[in-house]
Batch of 3 targets.
Target 1
Amino acid sequence: MKKIGRWIFNHSLGIIIGGLIFGPMCVFATDTYLLNADDIEYDNTQSGSLATDVEGALDDLSSKADACNQQTYTAYSKGQELTINSEKYYVIADSSTSDDYVTLLKETPISNTASSYGSDSTYASSSTKTAVDTWAASTFSNNELKEVNNYEARLIAVEELTDLGCTSSNCTNSTHSWTYDSNYTYFTMSQYNNTTTSVWAVRTDGSVAEIATSSQAMLRPVINLLKSAISS
């Protein structure tokens, strides 16, 4: 019998397709054999697999094939600066080689004019969401942003500010100086203590504090950008 390193076969039809795998490389033979399953002998000392029978070897091969087909992407670390469409953005969450997108905070607000949050502190129903969505639609193509937790673009959450080194009350001690700007106050998407009339905002002095939804503040968006849209 011709020895091969791996077997893929259909139990009911007894169709055997041989394939060889060498280390991390994925090389598959095209020869097809019509054999009876009872005639197959499996020797794992030749293949290097830990499996002791043909069925186990098939599972082993399947997992290795999946690994070979998995696409890898550029990894980004929290705090990195990227320039997209001539605008600066900052990575606010680590993104591994298996992630096809990266989450970014825009360096500057989407407009030079402050606006109110709206009549409700729930971001999904706020006028700020409408403004951010309108900006995103005019700035990016349909295949450049990815929907994550219901949003392709949004405002930052206070939990993300904490991950960036801010405390519950200020960002002045964060290692990322761009978490606040002395020139403007900007809204977050987080309700203030579950009230319907206030949200958290980052003020010009770096403090993270309550602000009424009727007050004026800037909109500094967060986007989930597909890595395929980033120029190398």
Note: Confidence is low (pLDDT under 50) at residues 1-25.
Target 2
Amino acid sequence: MPVMAGIDGKARFLETLQIAMERRQPVAIYADEDDFQSYEVGYVEYVDSQEVMLQCLTPKGEPDGRRAIHTDDISRIDTDNAYTRRLDLLFQYKESIFDKEFRPLPKGVRPDLRTQLENARESSTIVHVVDSNDYGPTGFVERVGEDFVELKRVGSNGEPDGMATVLTSSIHKVHFGRRQEQVLEFLYRYNHDLKKLLDS
């Protein structure tokens, strides 16, 4: 790859940030010298040779205040990758992603685990099943057996991710409809169901 004449890293960072600001595209900025894996994602609101003001986003695409960053502290900028595109999409649809109230159960039904799992299957609600180490699959309930649960797994960007069968005896807890599961439901339907509809 040819070297860009007359431009150093800081100038290239400024150029990248200015383009992102003009296009209203989120960026991931690495500017913590003590933690090379730490970064902030958001929209560039202002940038000059001294500082950048970032409108930050949570991992669920929600507004998370502003952060001022010294441009001299920046060591890396990521643009237009799967994660920043995901947060941009979630931010755009933030008003329609999350439930405003608890999802109702059918009347007269006791809210025990099996019933909740069956209800999640019928209502196509994503659940997160975990063991005593707080580890386990996330996905749509496909089947509730006598001593097992089968899930159609959903990956971190809402993509289908195979199947998982879990013994009921190994389940420590199950999460139903938290915000992070609602995010995955939205991403799945946006990227998978909508694509199938457009292709049909």
Note: The chain has two domains: 9-97, 113-199.
Target 3
Amino acid sequence: MKIAIACDHGAYHLKETVKKHLTEQGHEVKDFGTNSLDSCDYPDYAGPAAQAVASGECERGIVLCTTGIGVSITANKVKGIRCALLSDLLSAKMTRQHNDTNVMAMGAAIVGEMLALQIVDTWLGTEFEGGRHQRRVDKIMAYEG
């Protein structure tokens, strides 16, 4: 799977850990930055990563910052994106099964490294159930206009 990944300075180390994990699993990862601990603005990185998913350049996206809040808000501003802020395994599973999320967000100060990798694996490994959930996703997406 081709996965877009992005972070700000607050999640740089977690991004590098997740990127290595994904690559070791055979995923193709497109890194939208940041590439250092220098202070930066998360929309500059999360926005382009979400756009890559919306355009079809990447199949899924993972965006990270200190809390995950700013990057999830940014990603959800991109038409066609359904981004969930995740900090537990049940939410990672349910947001794929019921909401067909195509981007996930996490906060580096909220989840530890081991849990973060489990969340990523659960989210990537869970399929959308469709059925009655498709009707609900369609209603959500209708708000984009």
Note: The chain has six helices and five strands.
